[in-house]
Amino acid sequence: MDVIQHKNASWGRAHERNTFKHQMMSVLFLLFCPLCVLVANVIMCEYQGSILSFLQATANGSIYRSLTAYDFQFDQSALTAYTTWVLFQAALFQYLPGKDSLGQQTPGGNILPYRTNGLQAWFVTHIVFGVLCWMGVVDAAIVPKLWTGLIYVTNMAGVALSIFVFFKAYIAPSYVRDRKFSGSMVYDFQMGIEHNPRIGETFDLKLFTIGRVGMMSWTIIDISNAAYQYQKFGSVSLSIICVSLLHAVYVVDFFVYEDWYLRTIDIAHDHFGFYLAWGATAWMPVMYTLQAQYLGQHQTDPSMAYVAFTFAAGLIGYYIFRTSNNHKDLVRSTDGRCTIWGAAPKFIRAKYTTSDGKLHESILLCSGWWGWSRHANYVGDLILSFAMCALVGTTSGIVWFYGVYMGILLIHRSYRCDKRCRDKYGKQWDEYIRTVPYRFVPGIW
């Protein structure tokens, strides 16, 4: 069996996870995350988005009656709608013309081809949805009306996909040398074995699941909730319009720069297991769109000045996120022969070795946003995330979940990134940290 099991690997998992503690943590993760999605819907529907009310109900025992009375049942209409959605996205992913792109070199030394046609697919998806709604074939508010059934279906689909890729890694791996085994089957199921499992030569399950099943659904869910708000209240609020616009900016950016996304941590470093498979299938569509879900059911009335300020803050966050990523990509694509903020960029040339023994070189940028912060793109992402939540104009805890979650995720990812880069680049990473000492905010952190 030709398997990569480095103790100090540059990609994916760097250590064995076969201790009892790690296995129990994986089991808890596998149980807690689906429960969290179900509970979020209960809080939204039964407690008007109030986490405090939910906790009070839990304390006095009435939560049991709410949960047992809640109808998490199989819904044939939801299954049909979701299956149609996934098959339609799969057809666009496979057959729609697009740019031929190459991914970053994998741990096993493979450079994989992709067809990045996400932007075209986004436009086709929304045009088709709009036409079907206009013709009366589909109710524009179909998503919130089938929401409980869709949550059930997406959870089952995410678990089924996770099981499929787990056994595929043993029976029919796409790239043998890109597998990694931790020593714990539970942990391997959670975090994945294969790096880029594919069906055939080109259908990449990781990119499809994250991009088309997950990201593509954001704006459709938003539009459908806005339609539901209109049907319920007779008008569409400024808050849901601005929330939907910021979501759309983020999603369209993802597809405009889909080629760049191939070099990010999700595609270039993480293996594909429950964490990404179920996460993109169930967690992302449900937990990342809580603001639109809330506004679909509850109209809020923040002032025009408040909405304008918060929306502008979100756009500023996006600008930092996008330009910082563009700076890094520009410097690496030109080998440093460019300008950042009107000056020649400062950078460190760092070397690393892949599992095939070959020596490679990378650039660690120390100019522009990256001269201020080692994770400047995360700073912009966090500003944008909290603006999305603040636009709702309410203190109901559930709408703030996305911002808090992204804060925890990106802070954790920053430490994980630093550790991986230290393992990968060694002393050159230490030199980079001395040059750019602040993780997030200059002078503070």
TrEMBL record:
Keyword Disulfide bond: no
Gene Ontology molecular function: any one: 7-dehydrocholesterol reductase activity
GO process terms (BP): brassinosteroid biosynthetic process; cholesterol biosynthetic process
InterPro entries in UniProt: ERG24_DHCR-like
Chief localisation class: membrane
Its EC number(s): 1.3.1.21
Membrane topology classification: Multi-pass membrane protein
Annotated catalysed reactions: 7-dehydrodesmosterol + NADPH + H(+) = desmosterol + NADP(+); cholesterol + NADP(+) = 7-dehydrocholesterol + NADPH + H(+)
Record's keyword terms, sorted: Cholesterol biosynthesis, Cholesterol metabolism, Lipid biosynthesis, Lipid metabolism, Membrane, NADP, Oxidoreductase, Steroid biosynthesis, Steroid metabolism, Sterol biosynthesis, Sterol metabolism, Transmembrane, Transmembrane helix
Broad class of enzyme this protein falls into: oxidoreductase
TM annotation in the entry: 24-44, 121-143, 149-171, 233-252, 272-291, 303-321, 382-411
UniProt pathway annotation: Steroid biosynthesis; cholesterol biosynthesis
Compartments in which it is found: Membrane
Top-level division of the source organism's lineage: Eukaryota
GO cellular component, one term: endoplasmic reticulum membrane
Family to which the UniProt record says this protein belongs: Belongs to the ERG4/ERG24 family.
Designated name of the protein: 7-dehydrocholesterol reductase
Species name: Pyricularia oryzae (strain 70-15 / ATCC MYA-4617 / FGSC 8958)
